[in-house]
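User: Could you walk me through two proteins back to back? I'd like the raw sequence and the structure tokens for each, with a short line separating them so I can tell where one ends and the next begins.

Assistant: Of course. Protein one, sequence then structure:
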Amino acid sequence: MKFLMIFAALLFGGLSQAAISKKVTRPAAASVSHQSPGAILRAAGSVHGGEAREIVSLLKVRRLTSKNKKLERIEFALGNAGQQPLEGKPGYFNLELRPGQKQIVIGFAQTLNARFEERDLRKVFAASPYVKSTQMYFEPETQSMNFILNLNKPASVRVIPVMGGKKRTARVVLDLFEGKRR
């Protein structure tokens, strides 16, 4: 009797599986993708990289624009707990390009201090062709320094972590641009 019940369960289970479509669906266009550093985010997604460290500080934010204003480069210079240049990989970071490509959120983990304030950040981005406004805040629970960059227009983002050495500190570089670039 047990044999018949097991056989019937297998038979009907197999038939019910045959009725289920085997069609594979692709994720919606608004789904978030996780990319490796150096990859280009052309739609909503995130990039994380760097190295988990004890304490990191932010030394400087610098902004450069190409002559034709089609590319804007933002550099976050990182230091150690004593605000000295950081050698090796930058500290851990997470960047998210929000849906609609008009807001970037970047967080630096274990970052307890910065050599600049939010008003300094506003001055850096005052003439930016891409960044409309900025916010900077410290998250005490996660001990991270976070930045929100509100953009004038949709942009693609490339994130490049740069190792520090004897002459230059570790940096996280963001390239903002329209359209397709390599």
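----
Protein two, same layout:
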Amino acid sequence: MVRSAKLRHDAAAVAVLFSPAMVPVIDIFRALGDFEDHYDVLALDGLERRLARTMSREAAKGIVSDALLLAFGLRRERVEAIPYGALHTRRGTLDEYRLVALIGAASRNDLALAEEAAAALGAAHPQPLVSLAVDIARRLAAAGVTLEAPDRRLVAAAHAAASVEVARAPDPRPLKTQVDL
């Protein structure tokens, strides 16, 4: 008999397909995820060069620098690393979406949503990450990169952790299921 079971809050099937304009933004963090594994400074230089194709070299350097701080800040807050998708692909993970939502909310001065996104990413102390996201959002805006408005439902999905309790009813009726959201 099952007494209780915890459903993973991120187990829901969510497919993320970034717009082509968003791929360079999320690729910053994908490349930094690889940098964290290998600490290859040449990878950072390559990332800056790729960004400098669409903006000034100084803007690209500033964005990479701020993104590096945010990526390390996230890594310190999380138990596990963010599961990043492959470079140059529009397909993304839910955590990648939440990361872009953090920056997108910060770019719109929706600091409450930015804090929700940081918390959904596993940050116990979201405010420092929101501050870093504001810095990145400003640099992206100065470089002419506009972020889409985040979908609040996908950001809040981490808070929708459901616990399901299943208990055998005392009579022959079907199982009683209680869901707390």
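Helices lie at 23-38, 41-51, 57-77, 94-107, 111-120, 126-142, 152-156.

Let me know if you want the two compared in more detail.
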